[in-house]
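Example 3.2
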Amino acid sequence: MVLLSLDIDGTLEVGDPPGTIPLALIHRARALGYIVGSSSDRVVSDQERLWLRHGVEMDFIGHKHKLDEVKARFPQATRWIHIGDGNADEVYAIRHGFEFHWVHEVPAEGTPGWIF
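Structure, written as tokens:
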């Protein structure tokens, strides 16, 4: 089972600033049975309002510096991925045992490292 964690600002199309990851990627991952959530610098209540406004159901909402708590909460996952646009995303993802992908370098579909 795959757990996909996403930064918001600079990463997702609904971020401020917008990133390149479309909400369709979240829907696709959830349809495939992935555990999907956001790990951002934004306060949790702001993230919750964002997902409610866009009608997106998330399995978790939290902060990137607490990815260790996300990992502990979902022990059934066998692959942990975090996508982000900043150095903090990379540092915390690697520190907590996640694969990290820069938003502008997400592997192309069908290539090694592709998230689906």
